Amino acid sequence: MTGMGGSAGAAGIPDLPGMAPSAPATPTEPPTHGLGVSLPAADAAAKTQGVFPYAADLWAEGLLWAALLRSPHPHARIVSIDTSAAAAMAGVRAVITHADVPGDAAHGRGVADRPVFASELVRHHGEPIAAVAADHPDTARLAAAAIAVEYELLEPVTDPEQAFAAAPLHPDGNLIRHIPLRFGDPEATGEVIVEGLYRIGRQDPAPIGAEAALAVPRPDGGVEIYTASTDPHADRDLAAACFGLAPERVKIVVTGVPGAMGDREDPGIQLPLGLLALRTGHPVKLAATREESFLAHPHRHPTLLRYRHHADAEGKLVKVEAQILLDAGAYADSSAEALAAAVSFACGPYVVPHAFVEGWAVRTNNPPSGHVRGEGAMQVCAAYEGQMDKLAARLGIDPAEIRLRNIMATGDLLPTGQTVTCPAPVAELLRAVRDFPLPALPLDDPEADWLLPGGPEGAGEPGAVRRGVGYGVGMVHMLGAEGADEVSTATVKVTGSVATVICAAVETGQGFSTLARQIVQEVLGLEEVYVAPVDTDQPPCGPAAHGRHTWVSGGAVERAARMVRTQLLQPLAHQFGMSHELLTIADGKITSYDGVLSTTVAEALDGKELWATAQCRPHPTEPLDDTGQGDAFVGLAFCAVRAVVDVDVELGSVRVVEMAVAQDVGRVLNPRQAHARIEAGITQGVGAALTENLRTTGGLVRRPDLTGYSLPTSLDTPDIRIVKLVEERDVVAPFGAKAISAVPVVTSPAAVAAAVRAATGRPVNRLPIRPQSAVSSNAGGLGG
């Protein structure tokens, strides 16, 4: 034989008598577009070449520059504001304060409790006091600094536990929400009881690009705002109310979003810019400094958690008791929603017959808290997984095994009384990461000292390094909750061989624009699909959070595309006397099942334009009642992570060696994007576990910059092994897909903490993990 892989003849084997020569095999070409393909992002080239237009890059004729004066104090009474010196400076066009807000003086996502400009009281460090527009950015900053504000300093409330007894920081009081969850028998007890106190720090989204916006006045007396909004219609409505204008006279145009995990939801820049544009009649632009970005946008809620777990002698959970306290900072923002997630998921993806949880979200004079990936769920995951490790140690059971004995499955009940109806392959996920081979130890490689904690120049000794393995199992909800009206609208147009998608779902890096193209390619068989830029002239689609746009906006695009498909195929099917279901579209061609009909999409259109608009609205949910019960969530997603860490038990330095991940994804729509989103989530979780904490002293933010706030770099990123993606489709979700980004963020910090516990024997009850928490009195070699 001369070779393998071709036809028999090609391999040198003669054809048998009477047989026709065998035809060469035709290789099957892999699909190049549609769902399930790793279609590259349409804007990838522009972003990598540095020509993608972000808000900070925009310019307009007659442009003015803005600057904000922010409070240097966390809590103070404003006695007076003197803007005369600033207004008299050459080049200054306008100076505005709270007295210049013509409409609503306060705004907020759920509760309108946050002033555009502080008027009587300052409630957090960095709160806006005034804004300036000038001919040059330096002039604007100097003018802002020249505004004289007389403050009467007040004692800040920075401990959320003290907020209950402290004087009200806001007319609405200090308590934003209280949820008492009651599930089962309060008298139930277990043979084994473990308790724990856990603290979670203030993680910042730290986007690659700080906030920026451009406001342009319109001839009709309205204004257009160009900004990286993730919920443009909500921002438009807030702006219109603030400006005293009808919503149709305010337009939000979404520019490129340089990273968004909640921080883009703060309109504290857009509103002053719009007011300045309306006042001056000129376009006005502001690009925030990194310090302003840290001070202004929402952060992850710092959280205090007290837990008591009851179990029987075999490790089966009997009851969970918990108290959860979220520090909302000065204003409510999304704290009520974060608390609902924290309380609902306080027991984790485990079967718990009896649960009693008290949850509170309170105002303080700390920096604002709000929506950051996995809010509420991440904090409780770190706590309940710490409790599971304590139970395992008390009973002498393997940490993975005790989790498997209690793991949740489809058909089980959440402590809210809601039945888990979606696929919940949690046991399969945990077994996958447990059984994945462990990474090798680096002791035998003399060149591998850089792999040890601290690197080659570190002060530690290899003999003080111990390896630990830990598990984290977590869950998040998808879409909004507690009765949120989740609806999205999309339009699909086809002209010639080109399709256009019009949908106000913002591309924040989660891949929606690419997904929309793939959906239309799948349904209409057209390769060339254009996704229109987003603005508020389009119907609303809601915020880019909780996997909404994959589900709701993707569902709307699919429905609109299918309606266009029917319009296109029905006349052809009628002409040939067959049902349009017997026709297929692929690669721009329409063919019938029997091959009789074969034409192109362009020929079938015959110069006509087809279009359709559709909505997607998932099944409704309901608010939690006064005992924390209710069907509050549309769907759930799950993840299991196994962390392997090396810890220098003398210095407390930690290196995450490997993170093995198994995730419940429903269906992989774009493999490359799915892997990238999981890897990004794991990396963000590692940051929350080890380095990221926006520190404050007496309410003042300490070093609000990228040197004082330690983000993980590429050298801190571990090997991320995606062990398994379980594609058990959720039948109520379009395409069966689930949200991907948030649940690795939720789960990975708990896994890292568990691994450090295993390496050191210390409780590790605080995130990020401080060096003193990772120091062990039991020194031992690597692998101990």
UniProtKB/TrEMBL annotation:
Lineage, opening ranks: Bacteria, Bacillati, Actinomycetota, Actinomycetes, Kitasatosporales
Question: Where are the stretches annotated Disordered?
Answer: 1-38
Aldehyde oxidase/xanthine dehydrogenase a/b hammerhead domain residues are: 49-155
Q: Which organism is it from?
A: Streptomyces syringium
Note the Pfam families from the entry. Ald_Xan_dh_C (PF01315), MoCoBD_1 (PF02738), MoCoBD_2 (PF20256)
Q: By what name is this protein known?
A: CO/xanthine dehydrogenase Mo-binding subunit
Q: Which domain of life is it from?
A: Bacteria
Write down the PANTHER family for this protein, in alphabetical order.
XANTHINE DEHYDROGENASE, XANTHINE DEHYDROGENASE SUBUNIT D-RELATED
Write down the InterPro entries for this protein, in alphabetical order. Answer: Ald_Oxase/Xan_DH_a/b, Ald_Oxase/Xan_DH_a/b_sf, Ald_Oxase/xanthine_DH-like, AldOxase/xan_DH_MoCoBD1, AldOxase/xan_DH_MoCoBD2, AldOxase/xan_DH_Mopterin-bd_sf
